[in-house]
Amino acid sequence: MQLPSELDDLYQDIILDHYRSPRHQGLLDDPDLRGEGFNPFCGDQVVLTLGLDEAGRIAEVGFEGQGCSISQASASMLTGHLEGKTLEEAEGLVRTFKGIMQGGEFTPEQEDELGDIVALQGVKRFPIRIKCALLGWTTLQDAIAAYRKTHD
Amino acid sequence: MYDVAKIRKDFPILDREVHGVPLVYLDNAATSQKPRAVIQALSDYYERYNANVHRGAHTLAIEATDAYEEARAKVARFINAPSPENIVFVRNTTEAINLVAHTWAVANVGAGDRIVVTEMEHHSNLVPWQHVARMGGAELKLMAMTSGYELDTSDLDELLTPATKLVALTHMSNVLGTITPVAEVVAAAHRVGALALVDAAQSVPHMPVDVQALDCDFMAFSGHKMLGPTGIGVLYAKEEVLEQMDPFLRGGEMVLEVTYEDATWNQVPLKFEAGTPNIGDAIALGAAVDYLSALGMDSVREHEVALTGYAMERFAELEEVTTFGPSDLSVRGGVVSFYMSEIHPHDIGQVLDQLGIAIRAGHHCAMPLVRSRLNVPATARASFYLYNTEAEIDALIDGLNQVLRYFGDAASKRA
Ligand SMILES: Cc1ncc(COP(=O)(O)O)c(C=O)c1O
User: How many CB pairs under 8 A join A and B?
Assistant: First the structure.
């Protein structure tokens, strides 16, 4: 029996590459922000740590995780887009990505800005995997929310 | 003669296609498919004699009550309970166990007492006991698993102290397929004055079960895993235990006499069935029991042992795949949990789904077992039932080879 080509939309090369060789692997020793996300449905897990510079911009990112290719690749891709951003900008990025996973389309400007993340669009055709794709992103959101509670 | 081709014709859903290919349903430990006779029993009730039970003297009410009580009697005979009165209808296994936790256990488990469960429990037979132990100041102890995935009964005598009030164990693990030596554990529990509860969610659907031979005090199982509808399950308990237990939910149907100040309870088992019960689904469960009885549970078990043996042989061909569970088929149900270090179970499940093959990926509601004993984040699981065939296992193995090729190719494309 032949595997349908739809699968290639989900498992694009860039996604499998991030899954096998996640970027920013390893947690920071003394992070300013830390978040842990868990998807009990399939046991996916992501721990994210961030270090800020004096201006409050994200200077360092480290993550560890366990789980399916989509959850881990998506988190790995996210880590590549955080350095240099303020927490507000990072939140904006999460909002954009969530909006697209929940049915929106990328604008050409967003495609330029997000680069490899656009490959995750294929996940939309497999609704049960959207939660996997969002895990790293909601973890970041939670980490920022927790940071604000103690620092505002 | 056990004729699988003929049996398959009784299950309308087995004709359907998924993604343009025939369905191969290997997620039976989660829920089974339903034969036409069960679906028919359900619609017959709603089309012909829908009425409330145990009240009203009209014809429909009498027919509905008779059918509901006949279903109870069928379930009782199916597990060789002494009487229909040992059978309480509930929603599912989880509710049956919680009923015992919230009534019997609250009254009988206190500070310094002990509850014993096994390392293989489904969350349904673990989390309620964590709660009972915490609320009552009792301790919760674990019976371990051997390296061969069987229940380790070697230290039963140390584990079951006189402080032990309850031993709650699974009859068949939904992750490993392990069949536990229930009769031996129940006897040990009784020697120290403890009661024994059996989670039979995976055993009653797949093998002959005799509650009197096992001598357990409680048994819980779900209709939906044994060809019946969702929303109906069973708590079996010994009569003297049921008599002593307080009601769980209070209200209509479970009372005998009510004044503005007080109430007395209906007889067992109605005392535990407050409110209008799930009449239609109970009757349809009766039809499921009829179907299983006609096939014979010995034959069902024999078919599944053969399938599991075949599956284990075929799995052994896949070098990249680790399987978990006993190798001795006499203590193994039709469940094969497996793991590939390079490919997450969820991704395996996704690719198989594209081939029409339904398996489950995850921790199977047994998180501590999967994560702390099998030491993997999740497993993929194929589970068989009376309508599965060797050809379907071949399809699964072919599918897994495709999974390996698919992810292997994707890796080599970049290399
Ligand atoms: C061993 C075991 N116990 C309990 C349950 C819970 O059954 P239910 O969800 O029908 O309450 C299951 C089903 O998943 C099971 O396999």
Answer: 65
